[in-house]
Amino acid sequence: MADHDRIEGSAKQAEGSIKEGIGKLTGDEKLKAEGRADKVEGKVQNTVGGIKDTLKGDGRH
């Protein structure tokens, strides 16, 4: 099962993509920047979740 962090990270990335897209459509630079920041935050969280999954699989915990 995927780690909770990976699920939340993926959701945050999707939310960021939507915000960035709306910002581009409306010309809202602040919203675009928030979207990009959310995407980066989601990628980091997803990576942390992947590392946790790997460690769980190695028998370390």
Query: Order of SSEs, N→C?
Result: HH
Number of helices: 2
Could you tell me the radius of gyration in angstroms?
Answer: 14 Å
Overall, the morphology is: rod-shaped
Major pleated sheet: none
Oligomeric nature of the chains: single chain
Strand content: under 5%
Mean pLDDT: 91
Q: Give the CA-CA distance, first to last residue.
A: 16 Å
Please give the share of residues in helix. over 70%
How many extended strands? Answer: 0
Structural category: mainly alpha
Q: Low-confidence spans: pLDDT under 50, at least 5 residues?
A: none
Structural notes for this entry:
With 61 residues, the protein is mainly alpha-helical. Helix content is 85%, strand content 0%. The chain contains two helices and no strands. Helix 1 runs antiparallel to helix 2 (29-57). The protein is rod-shaped, with a radius of gyration of 14 Å. It starts with a helix and ends with a helix. The model has no long low-confidence stretch (mean pLDDT 91).
